[in-house]
Amino acid sequence: AAVEVSEKDKIIHNIMTQYLPRDVDSILKQIVNHVEYTLARTKYNFDEQHAYQATAYSVRDRLIESWNDTQQYFTEKDVKRVYYLSMEFLMGRYLNNALLNLGIESQYQGALKKLGFDLDEVEHQERDPGLGNGGLGRLAACFMDSLATINYPAWGYGIRYKYGMFEQRISKEGYQIEIPDYWLTAGNPWEIERLDVKYPVRFYGEIKHNGKHYEWQGGEVVTAIAYDSPIPGYDTYNTLNLRLWSATPASEFDLDSFSRGDYYSAVASKEAAEKISSVLYPNDATEAGKELRLKQQHFFVSATLQDVVRRFKKKDRPLTELHTKVAIQLNDTHPTIGIAELMRIFMDHESMGWSAAWATTTKVFSYTNHTVLPEALERWSVDLVEKLLPRHMQIIYEINRRHLEEVVKKYPGDGDKLMRMSIIEEGFPKMVRMAVLAVVGSHHVNGVAAIHSGLVKSRLFPDFYKEQPDKFLNMTNGVTPRRWMQSANPALSEVISRWLETDEWVSNYELCRGLEQFVDSADMQREFREAKRTNKKRVAERIKKEFGVEVSTDAMFDIQVKRIHEYKRQLMNVLSIICRYNAIKRMTPAEKEECVPRVCIIGGKAAAGYVIAKHIIRLINGVSKVVNNDKDVGDLLKVFFMTNYNVTLAEDIIPANDISQHISTAGMEASGTSNMKFVMNGGLIIGTMDGANIEIREEIGNDNMFIFGLLEEEIDRARNELKYGGYQHTDSRLQEAMKQIEANKYCGKDVSEPLLKNLQPYNDYYLVTRDFSSYMDAQARVDEEYKNQTSWVKKTITSVARMGKFSSDRTIREYGEQIWNLEATPFVPSSVAYKTV
Ligand SMILES: [N-]=[N+]=N[C@]1([C@H](N)O)O[C@H](CO)[C@@H](O)[C@H](O)[C@H]1O
Predict the structure, then answer these.
(1) SS3 220
(2) Which DSSP helix (H) or strand (E) runs through 210?
(3) Lower Cβ count inside 10 Å, N or C end of the chain?
(4) Are 593 and 635 in contact (CB under 8 A)?
């Protein structure tokens, strides 16, 4: 049917009809325009930082165009949207990713060149927004890129922390120091402050019943303000929205206290409000358990749900149909309070009855678990929830009462099952198990790799799995090939595109299988090696600059970068480095000839309060100092702890890997995602049968990986053997290394003692001593294999070719088909209301 076009539309339509032109000269004008009109600087005098800002604003203009059209198109098509709720979004730098996804990098290169700037240098001006801890936060970012690229209607919702992940510095003694990361010093051109999008969020207070429904009154109210960032898809017009909330005081100023002359509390309430979104809790895979953390969770979830319900209600239809247009994914238990919050909104604001409210709520939410580590499973004391969120505690009690009623009906008298399946953990104090609430309130629950999803069913929620097996799914993680290959590794990406004669693999990774037919081609092998050498050279220069040490790019670059955590066993890595060092010290010149030189790179942050993890960093720096200054060793072994590991550093060093380490105690790394990035960037893995390592091995083949160590099902027995003296390691290399540590060869007693204590059989919970010999055998296999560079490069080519499963596009398609039931909705500029290309 013809679309009714108002006069106003006709006028609007005839201005700004075209998308911003993409030629170099137009882009140059747009950049200089922003220097003048946005940065208010003269076009004759602006430096690299200003050039970055102006470039960012001009790219943002383009994103805003397709962003507005995409949202309008989704509204016009009345599509179902998924809302990804996450306390963390580790986005990394925006500029280069936006230029590549818009397919406009070379034009910007040309325009900036004409202005006397180098695009690479300009991109380095950008701060890396560290709004996340590690894998979980970065996964959310990769997912946003894939959601946009495969044209799924989606929004990301989170918190706009003023202080992101702390900046890590290393003292001259080798200890980690945490520096607050105020990342907004130069502002953020990639966000739009939405002063018109704000919601009240309440805390504390009391509950009244007004005869019709409950009312939550009193307490504290803060205002959530929205900050929107456009998320461009690759090679599509679709541009999604990431909405991050920032807390401000409900009333700008508490005039009453002020007029009472109580100036301090007038300001205090302002600060208290802003504190809610001020800092990210730096814990990875461990819960914070602090009141402010729960406040942060309720803050962003309440604002989000109010926003989602407002959007749904734009069209006149019953809220009992919310699930037909809205899917909400809980990124771990952090947003789980949302289940009680949606019930509150439905019943207290929308007058829905309990059953209708619950029926709709459980059709809206689905939950992803990211770890089985007991210390990471969030539990809040009932007292705290009752104090902070009294209405929610009421609702949680009622959810639990009705839930357990069903359990009792089916298993009368089975008190243990009741206890295991209860959202409330009895005891002093009583606790609310957020993971159980998430399972009870969700229509689907998934783990993030096959082995992990198995443990979620068998170890975390066996009773629930027994009742509803179909509720439990596996969604193996993935990473976006845009940032982690095309942007981070142009050298290798260029080789792949040339041999495949297309760069479509960037949005359809399965096409890379086509590389396998060339695996025996000397030319392809040479080009893969040259790309690797280019990346190793860049990292060698970085090491020279940062540590003043020359490294040879003929050496094998051995990299382990991830959060420092005992289960990730960086300690086992540094112990093997000490053994390698001792072995080299004993080598004859002839043996040294045969020895494969290694550059060992380790990096990662330890949570601020995680003492043992910080000790491990101190030991690594101690070993690095001794080894790197030992003339006997020379180029055969170099060790570096790369400071302040974050997304930008990962993009720089991952392409330079020959071998990367993913050596967690089996059953403890839910998935891992850096393992995928390393192999996609032409390296091989030494690892345990844990997390996604297992599926990577299935996809690329056992010959292309160096697997070692106990299997998950062997762990409990091994722990008991160690604990009760059934097993004592006899590895003389390990004993020698531990003796040296005890002698404080690499660090002081403050560090050596606690670390050695944890290696004692009864204490070695992470089985470092138990897996050590098998690990060293695998390391010896790596050395042997690396000597044959042709076979090595063939393994890397085969591996790159077979990594299609680990593109986050595959992961998101599975979520879309099996959990969210979404339609890909590519925006096609057609109807009158839209611009034309
Ligand atoms: N929390 N948490 N979980 C993790 C990571 N630490 O962020 O989530 C990541 C993303 O799912 C996993 O890859 C990783 O194994 C797991 O430990």
Answers:
(1) strand
(2) none
(3) N
(4) no
Name the residue among 350, 224, 364, 357 with its Cα closest to residue 295: 224
Note whether 658 and 557 are within 8 A (CB): yes
What is the rounded CA–CA span in Å between residue 641 and residue 603?
5
Q: CB within 8 A of 196, min separation 6: which ones?
A: none
State the Cα–Cα distance between residues 293 and 291, nearest whole angstrom.
Answer: 5
Residue 627 burial (CB count, 10 A): 22
The Cα–Cα gap between 187 and 242 comes to 17
Whether ligand 1 lies within 6 angstroms of the CB of 664 is answered as no
Residue pair 234/150 in contact (Cβ under 8 Å)? The answer is no
Q: Find out whether 421 and 464 touch, Cβ atoms under 8 Å.
A: yes
The predicted structure's pLDDT at residue 837: 47
Q: Which residues sit opposite 159 in a β-bridge?
A: 245
3-state per-residue secondary structure call for 365-380: EEEECCCCCHHHCCEE
Cα–Cα distance for residue pair 795/697, rounded to 1 Å:
12
Going from the Cα of 507 to the center of ligand 1, the distance in angstroms, rounded, reads: 24
Cα of 431 from ligand 1 centre, angstroms: 24
Beta carbon of 90 within 6 Å of any ligand 1 atom:
no
713 within some domain: yes
Which residue, among 545, 561, 553, has the nearest Cα to 617 in the 3D structure? 561
Q: How far, in Å, CA of 686 to CA of 670, rounded?
A: 17
Angle between the N-to-C axes of helices 732-742 and 768-787, in degrees from 0 to 180, rounded to the nearest 10: 110
* pTM, two decimal places: 0.96
As annotated, the active-site residues are 370, 562-563, 568, 673, 677
Q: What is the pLDDT of residues 535-561, one digit of tens each?
A: 999 999 999 999 999 999 999 999 999
For the CA of 448, the closest atom of ligand 1 is 11
**Residue 103 located in a structural domain:** no
**DSSP β-bridge partners for residue 193:** 227
Give the helix/strand (H/E) hosting 514: none
Which of left, alpha, beta for 378 (phi over 0: left; psi -120 to 50: alpha)? beta
Ligand 1 atom at minimal distance to the Cα of residue 138: 10
How many domains, the chain? 1
Percent helix, strand, coil in the chain, to 5, is 55, 15, 30
3-state secondary structure of 596: coil
Q: In angstroms, rounded to a whole number, what is the distance separating the alpha carbons of residues 733 and 332? A: 41
| Pocket-testing residue among 131, 372, 448, ligand 1, by greatest number of atoms within 8 A of Cβ | 448
Residue 783 belongs to some domain of the structure:
yes
Neighbour count for residue 177 (Cβ, 10 Å): 12
562, 674 in Cβ contact below 8 A?
yes
DSSP string over 662-721? E-PPTTS-S--SHHHHHHHTT-EEEE-S-TTHHHHHHHH-GGGEEE-S--HHHHHHHHHH
| Selection from 155, 279, 282 nearest residue 226 by Cα | 155
The domain that holds 571 is classified in CATH as 3.40.50.2000
Burial 740-755 (b: 16+ CB within 10 A, else e): bbeeeebbeeebbeeb
Return phi, psi of residue 433, to 5°: -85, 105
* Residue in the structure block whose two tokens are 């086992």: 572
**DSSP 3-state of 330:** strand
- Condensed to tens digits (0 to 9), the pLDDT of residues 36-88 reads 999 999 888 899 999 999 999 999 999 999 999 999 999 999 999 999 999 99
- Three-class SS state of 243: strand
Please give the number of the atom of ligand 1 that sits closest to the Cα of 139.
Answer: 10
* Residue 593 within any structural domain of the chain: yes
What's the domain range around 673? 551-793
Give tens-digit pLDDT for 271-314. 788 899 999 998 887 777 789 999 999 999 999 999 999 999 99
